[in-house]
Amino acid sequence: MPVEPLSLKEIEDRLAELPGWAVEDDRLTRSYRLGSHFAATAMVIHIAQVQDELDHHSDLTLGYNTVSLSVNTHSAGGKVTELDFALAQRVEELAPAHGAH
Questions:
Q1: Which residues pair with 88 in a beta bridge?
Q2: Which distant-in-sequence residues (6+ apart) come within 8 Å of 46 by Cβ?
């Protein structure tokens, strides 16, 4: 079953439930600052596990003590879909365990 892009209203409603997340250039994005490079690296590994579990993958960038994600759904024409928000929610659930803010 194809995944449909979300409307602007649906995106706005879902963003209200995910502080720190934004939509830029048809991509759902978020950056986290962590206490150390090691903590950021550990968070990347856990995000990668979630992405494989969901079979939905973001562009994931590891910085010195930062982790940044950017995601959309290629099969929906590169637009933001419910799949992207499902991934964002799972990442938000991981963040506190890594001391991310």
A1: none
A2: 94, 97, 98
Q: How many CB atoms lie within 10 A of CB 73?
A: 22
Residue-wise pLDDT tens for the chain (101 aa)? 579 999 999 999 999 999 999 999 999 999 999 999 999 999 999 999 999 999 999 999 999 999 999 999 999 999 999 999 999 999 999 998 889 98
- Residue 71 has φ and ψ, to the nearest 5°, of -145, 145
Could you give the CA distance from residue 81 to residue 73 in angstroms, rounded to a whole number?
6
Q: How far is CA 25 from the centre of its chain?
A: 15
| Cut 0.85: pTM above it | yes
Amino acid at 56: H
Compute φ and ψ for 78, nearest 5 degrees: 75, 30
* Whether the Cβ atoms of residue 83 and residue 54 lie closer than 8 Å to each other: yes
**Rounded to an integer, what distance in angstroms lies between the CA atom of residue 44 and that of residue 61?**
8
